Amino acid sequence: MILEYTRHTELQNCDLAFVNLYAWQFLYQTEIAEWNGFLLFRFYADGHLAYLMPLGQGSWREVIEQMHQDACQLGHPLLILGVTEEMKHYIQGICSSKFVINPNREYADYIYLRESLATLAGKKLQPKRNHTNKFRRLYPDYEYRPLTRELIPLCLQLDEEWAAQKTVPGEQRAVESEKKAIRRALDHFEELGIIGGTLFVDGKLVAFTYGAPINDSTFDVCVEKADTAYEGAYAMINQEFVNHLPEQYRYINREEDLGIEGLRKAKLSYMPHQVLMKYSMWSSCSLQGKCACEMRSDDELHVEWQTRALWKLCFGDSDSFLDLFFSRKYKPQNNTFFRKDGKVVSALQRLPYRMSYAGLDVAVAYVAGASTLPEQRGRGLMTSLLSEAHRYMYEEGKVFSLLIPASDGLIDFYARSGYVCCNGVGERVNRLSVTPFSVSEISLTQHSETACEEMVDFMEQVYRSMPAAVLHDKDDLQVILQDMSDSGGRIWLARNESSQRLCGMLFLMPQKNKDWLIKECLAANPVVADELKRTAQNELCPERGLMDEAFCTQIKVVRVFDALKLYARVHPEADFTLEVTGDLLAGDAAPAVYLVRNGQCSRLEQGAHADRNYTVEALPQLLFDHGGPYMRLMLN
After folding, report:
1. Pairing mode, strands 38-45 and 612-615
2. DSSP-derived pairing of the beta strands 335-340 and 343-357
3. 490-496 and 143-146: which strand pairing?
4. The overall pTM is greater than 0.85
5. Of 41, 135, 205, 247, whose Cβ has the fewest other Cβ atoms within 10 Å?
6. Cross-strand pairs, 282
């Protein structure tokens, strides 16, 4: 069906090759529809709902409006990808919607003249001729064979061997996806009309390639793999395959470079006839309708949607959670991000919180949603982004930065940006005597305003009794309760029977295999805590027990002087000098010496004597020697 729309056109986008659409459907969830003479493509790219440039004849104004309405109904902005230079100007001219347009150089197609690739004639292609000539000298008995069903197992084996050499973490996800796409395509070799070629040396497969037509004159090379132990194998399979293609194909599309420097250099070295530039086009009308009350600019709205899509891609959170987070917690001014060609490729949220430090209120920032596009990982983006976020935190007066790494494997990564693991606090219970009490479950959807205020007050009371703890205000608790409700969570409260005052709280979230995780348990004493857990366990999982949540909290000192002032206030008996090195955020790389005495902290002249020496990274050992900061129920 797609060839019916492309066969007699001059469209040369590799996106339109049906082999690609089918092979990658598992990743992009591509859907195709016909509407009023047009062929429409809808899919998900890096978490975004997106559309390809439509194919067909008819009213372009109406088809773009139809796409816009479809995106609005699904709660997304209209995003059109793969738009060529010509179509970009045409769509702008006929549509009333305001578009934000970004060039996508990494997705530009490299299109070559078939004759150029087949002959490698001319001075500029001399290096390529050298590669193929050397291959012929080294392996004079090599054999080119058309790709057939019988040769597919050998091709898949070569692809496995090629993929095994890709060990960089940022590459592995892309490599695994490509392996699956190749298998999907070759499993339906005949039905998809795939044309391919192979290269053998001494009876061993050393290279293979395949592709399919885009139109009557352009052929798309979808995949090309070679064993690099055979020098010149890539150049040889490239030339041989083109020489064996039907002569009707005057143009060869060798697809994009994905922004990979080495791949770009290689594709340019073959002297393309054309680098087919592509653009993404965003229409923000639907976004303005959703966020009009906040009066955000088009650019802020696009950044928000791209950040949301990046979060979903990296963490896989539900739409209900993302709706909650981006409506209640997200603020443009707290989003630190990097863009490439108009696209958010790395982002993190600096969420403002209050922390109790021995009863004193401290401004802190909680890092949430730190994410980078898989293909952009391993390039230092998140490290640079954290550095920029720390500068913002310093300017905003945040004394500490806190985070919970998504996995234990990230602890060392964040340590390189100055974060250290905190010592845990003890029991989350007081040692108060409690008269008889009762335990009951509350409704997450019908709780009263008074109950919410009571819960906030009790949480504040318990948290402030700890050496250090992140606090939750009323608005924060309402967001937590909504998240728990959306996720099937349950809450039990304990109340004093005579006064009906709260004396305990238990927050549970369902897990796989019918397990239940304790997200938080706060109680006036251990007896109350035990009864809360026993009551919940008897109802939910009498034979399995409840799971206690365990994770690492990491902290970074952002404002050293302010942190030491806090320490001095809490420890009026302290009397010592200390030298702190590495306080780059203060704008001074030289060591700084401080005096802590009589509940105050002052900075001494450079070079003054110091009783103790700390790096910025080691300061939490002094500041949190009694444990903490305690942190639970974070929306992350």
Report:
1. unpaired
2. antiparallel
3. unpaired
4. no
5. 247
6. 79, 100
